[in-house]
Amino acid sequence: MVESTTTIYDVARVAGVSMATVSRVENGNANVKEKTRQKVLDAIAELDYRPNAIARGLASKRTTTVGVILPTITSPYFAAIARGIDDVASMYNYNVVLANSDNDEEKEAKVIESFLSKQVDGIVFMGSSLSESVRNQLVGARTPVVLAGTIDGDKELASVNIDYHLAALESTAKLLEHNKKVGYILGSLRDAENVERMVGYQEALEDAKVDFDESLVFEGNYSYENGRNLAQQLLDEKISAAVVSVDDVAVGLLNALQEKGIKVPEQFEIIAGSNSPLTQYSYPALTSVNQPLYDLGAVSMRLLTKLMLKEEVTDSQLILAHELIQRHSTK
Amino acid sequence: MVESTTTIYDVARVAGVSMATVSRVENGNANVKEKTRQKVLDAIAELDYRPNAIARGLASKRTTTVGVILPTITSPYFAAIARGIDDVASMYNYNVVLANSDNDEEKEAKVIESFLSKQVDGIVFMGSSLSESVRNQLVGARTPVVLAGTIDGDKELASVNIDYHLAALESTAKLLEHNKKVGYILGSLRDAENVERMVGYQEALEDAKVDFDESLVFEGNYSYENGRNLAQQLLDEKISAAVVSVDDVAVGLLNALQEKGIKVPEQFEIIAGSNSPLTQYSYPALTSVNQPLYDLGAVSMRLLTKLMLKEEVTDSQLILAHELIQRHSTK
DNA sequence: TTGTAGGCGTTATCAT
DNA sequence: ATGATAACGCCTACAA
């Protein structure tokens, strides 16, 4: 048996109709007599015909494919968002092309180029920061773009975010109830989202009439090891509670503190920032801000479909609600 | 400024050559005079021309895209593999289309259809089991396929796996050094990989002249909660050590045991099966079998490139080495 | 309701 | 070394 691709012409021949009719049947065009439709369907089944999406893409200029760029799929944080994106994408019959950027500007640029070249119908971009050049690349593209969990200061691009500012404020306020010195441990302040958190932290202090002390803020922490190493520094500063924006860091801190004999939450309170599964596995389980990550992805993708299908969108700068999940690392 | 796509013809016109020449330059064909090449390059830069990969795909029958199917990207296990796949894919200039199947046979079938329709150059399939129909679909495809961490009993499809059998045997043997009753906690026995583990477990018992006791085996456990719930059952069976193939379950068990006042590893030893970051974050950190997940993905993708480029492959059934990482949940 | 024919933007095969 | 000119497989007016 010769393995050559069967095309729409083959189906047409077998069904005894023209290829246009086959195309109509494939695309659910109503203008086809039921009897003809059946003949075509039979021929399709008989030949095991499968439309070539590439040819279709070339002719129709739509690929039903969206590109997704994220720092790394290995992070539970981005994986959760990606899952939300993927579910909604499948719901709308889009395929997802995934690319890891490692937060590297060059890779980001290269991936975007590649996506545009492949004629994706839309792009979801995630990155802890948005460089000027990448931003221009995205704005200049004729393809719809949505930023997920990524802040565009100029608000020119559509985006879906979580209210980091408010989350930080609330978390800090809660710890301030029982503590005088509340530390804040977060990632790089070059990332807009962390700046927002920082502002939230300061506002909470202000509300509680506590002076801001720079030495209680620890920037640039992302790993479990970072968290472990921070423990002693916090104790030296007489800090007795901390908001930790990255979960891995929070767990590292928790474990290191306990190894030093510090009781959590009795002697030290912790609020983690992402509510990843990690926070439930630690002992004691960590009180945590629940960022609706899956929803963030799902909503981003939904917004993108609207943009792609040219549906009306009233607000293209969305903010999702978060919540504080009380576990056992706070009093 | 009118936003119409600029094609290879536009470049040809501006450069004053034929489109064939532009195509040659684009594809690095040597048969182009240096001076001509430069003219073309200038025109490309001037017009900001970007080749249309869809048109190229249609004409060349190659899309430089591979499809990846996995149960869920949300699992750190599959995320690590996916990362390995993606890195090697980018290295070879392929894009990765990702699809979550949720281990659902229907979704798997649908996704494979969609991939084939999109003319992917190759497919990496991951699933805890391989149903007969999906297997046929894969075998019948004219597209190269590699199974990653998925066992095909008939060994007809190319695959890359970890030696679950040996890993289980070694882990069990280690626990048998200090314990009489060693439990085994694993996922569904309908999955080939778990059957392999089971056999390894039994062989280790045999080697140590310990009778196999069915009630020491706990099947179908995947979640943290499963692990927690198992703690009392294990203690009731007087089990004092267990190999736990899923890390989440291991952490759950660990935490629940400690809440009951059981000291790990003094009174109970645990070996986890996947060495995900979780095992390092728990307290005490879990001794764990290190499955080379990233490598599994990388090697799978490398094998796939060979298949796609029709390079010679001597062995298409690869087994990767694992190792036991000693931490603090074993004596 | 159905068929014809001209793209879509490349690659690739022949000529020249 | 370069240029015409068919494919590639489908969509979509436009005709019939």
UniProtKB/TrEMBL annotation, chains A, B:
<keyword id="KW-0678">Repressor</keyword>
<dbReference type="InterPro" id="IPR028082">
    <property type="entry name" value="Peripla_BP_I"/>
</dbReference>
<feature type="domain" description="HTH lacI-type">
    <location>
        <begin position="6"/>
        <end position="60"/>
    </location>
</feature>
<dbReference type="InterPro" id="IPR001387">
    <property type="entry name" value="Cro/C1-type_HTH"/>
</dbReference>
<dbReference type="GO" id="GO:0000976">
    <property type="term" value="F:transcription cis-regulatory region binding"/>
</dbReference>
<dbReference type="InterPro" id="IPR000843">
    <property type="entry name" value="HTH_LacI"/>
</dbReference>
<keyword id="KW-0804">Transcription</keyword>
<keyword id="KW-0805">Transcription regulation</keyword>
<dbReference type="GO" id="GO:0003700">
    <property type="term" value="F:DNA-binding transcription factor activity"/>
</dbReference>
<dbReference type="Pfam" id="PF00356">
    <property type="entry name" value="LacI"/>
</dbReference>
<keyword id="KW-0010">Activator</keyword>
<keyword id="KW-0238">DNA-binding</keyword>
<comment type="function">
    <text>Global transcriptional regulator of carbon catabolite repression (CCR) and carbon catabolite activation (CCA), which ensures optimal energy usage under diverse conditions.</text>
</comment>
<dbReference type="InterPro" id="IPR006377">
    <property type="entry name" value="CcpA"/>
</dbReference>
<dbReference type="InterPro" id="IPR010982">
    <property type="entry name" value="Lambda_DNA-bd_dom_sf"/>
</dbReference>
<feature type="domain" description="HTH cro/C1-type">
    <location>
        <begin position="7"/>
        <end position="50"/>
    </location>
</feature>
<protein>
    <recommendedName>
        <fullName>Catabolite control protein A</fullName>
    </recommendedName>
</protein>
<dbReference type="InterPro" id="IPR046335">
    <property type="entry name" value="LacI/GalR-like_sensor"/>
</dbReference>
<dbReference type="Pfam" id="PF13377">
    <property type="entry name" value="Peripla_BP_3"/>
</dbReference>
